[in-house]
Write a structure and sequence with these properties.
The protein has 3 domains: 290 residues, no CATH class; 111 residues, no CATH class; 57 residues, Arc Repressor Mutant, subunit A (Orthogonal Bundle). Helix content is 40%, strand content 19%. It contains 16 helices and 17 strands. The relative contact order is 0.10.
Length: 491
Amino acid sequence: MTGVPHPRYEVVIGLEVHAQLRTRSKLFSPAPVTYGAEPNHSVHPVCLALPGVLPVLNGHAVELAIRVALASQCHVHPQSIFARKNYFYPDLPKGYQISQYEEPLATGGWLDVRMPDGNGGERKRVRLHRIHMEEDAGKSIHDAAVAGDATHVDLNRAGVALLEIVSEPDLRSPAEAAAYLRALRSLLRYVDASDADMERGNFRCDANISLRRHGESRLGTRTELKNLNSFRFVEAALEAEIRRQASLLDAGEKVVQATLQFDPASGRTRVLRLKENADDYRYFPDPDLVPLVLSDAQIERVRKTLPEQADARCERFQRQQGLPEEDARLLCESRALADFFEAAAKRHGDAETLVNWIRRDVLHALGEHGIEIEASRLTPEALADLVERVRQGGVTAQSARALIPELVLSGGDPLRLIQERGLEAVSDTGELEAAVDAVLREHAGHVERLRAGEEKVRNFLIGQVMKRTGGKADPAALRRVLAQRLGEGGS
């Protein structure tokens, strides 16, 4: 998707992100937080709304929420209020959702977001309107293969702790929206507040979007796109809604405030319902919950637990490790990846070489298997040892690279695997001389071309020797032997 501005209209986007907090139990009950459990097994009388039960606030969830607020420069309020947001739906057992409305946990703040290349690749400060806590609803299952003509309700998710992060309408393109979401996900993971896994539904986005003529200051009528569950999906849905709204405005028609859904098959948005106002939810303070009161000392204790943030770490990697900015930023997109690199660099010392291995081989293997570095069995020490073995000439880079996918999935000692698989580099002069002689006999024409000055033929001959030795020939020793056999000197 492009970040090029619309020729006739300025696009105005604000995002509401729901991030599941990384807690073992739910926000107001001791029911465990699980993924993939049997339906309606991770429940408790509180989240089932059985008569006579009372909610008890999860203190760890509060601490995680404060961490996110502080890391995003928000003002954490000394008092916030939990309210009842009333609406009726089968997956909402109480008939209301406990959320925060008039007095949220935190307000203000910002994220400095690196914009995509189409937007100049510069940083843009995206302001945050508010951050508040709320409980999740259950899940309605409409899948005909599972439920037939009926709708089933799974309440495992009901009551799970969520953090809603609402941006100001500072984003001006779908590409900017996706960049903001990536930055926010990185922050949530950096402070260990959320897994922010979109595939598992614990990082979900609703987008508010409107158009106005270039130069106008008054905002247009906005619509809200619901349940956008991937970065690509967010961009595609916003692009579709821009086309729809622009078409209406071009025809002299009005945009109606509504809640929309994106259909990826048709590439269009469709109206789900006319947009509700806050009054429709009849918010009022929950009488079963006292105000959440935080002291300055409590907030400062949480502040002291915050890790080094991504931008500061990126600058340190450039300063201390001598990395280019691009490499440093790649590593610091994920706290786990930055930790992995730093531990490997502490053992090996050649930061530039390690980054090349991480970029070219480790990240490729992770992507091939669809896992994050946190789930990998490859340890920083194992990668450092493998890279050092290549440097010493004990194994070729080709053989070492072939081990990376196995180490990522299964772990193990790379030096032991090299010995067990017979992958030690061939540096024995006699064995190399025999392989070189055979290749020179088989490719006499290429030898003549090399002697005539076609230097690129040398790489072909080296490749043939590598093929004959199963990729195990030590490159430096191979070049020496080849030069000797060609009468070019060398020892």
